[in-house]
Specification:
alpha/beta; Rossmann fold; 7 helices
Amino acid sequence: MKRILCFGDSLTWGYDPDRRIRLPEDSRWPQVMKQALGGDHTVIEEGQNGRTIASDDPAEGEKNGLRYIGPCLESHAPLDYVVIMLGSNDCKRKFAYSAMDIAGEMQIMLEKVQSYNRFRCQDRFKVVLMSPPHIAPSIRDSWLGDSFGYENACRVSQELAGWYKQLADMYGCLFLDAAQIVTASDSDGCHLDAENQRKLGRAVAELIRNSEGG
């Protein structure tokens, strides 16, 4: 039985941009991926709304992914794959980060994950690094518009894939650019509707299946 940890934010949790609740299991990408891969795979959903890569967010509480990733890896071991998709919340106006800043945070996270993998797990698991979908212009008129600041958030999100691909190559990760597969809903310019969640789940399943030689 292969064990896959999906570590991310509201895009992994399955936030419904229309109803603002959690999508059902059959419309969340980790569960769609599980169904596509078959019964010999167990999927662990570790999505948290508002999660950042490594930044504290006093306005929203305990959202720092770097602080939680270590305990998360330990509590869910043994693992065969760790899928990481973070960076959207780091585009918020309050952080004022460039794409290079966000990539720098992700580099620190990958160093922590791969060090744990090498020295505690004998390189047992593979890491899948995903760059998130682009933040869409429609965010300007949504309830998230003020938080993200619109123009800069859209631009930074579009620049992340290039940086993440470099990191994936540096740290020996599988890589997937989610923006090449899915688009954010016009409802809020950030989250994925059920159709796009399912598309992403099938794409991640294909990536993992190919890495297994299937």
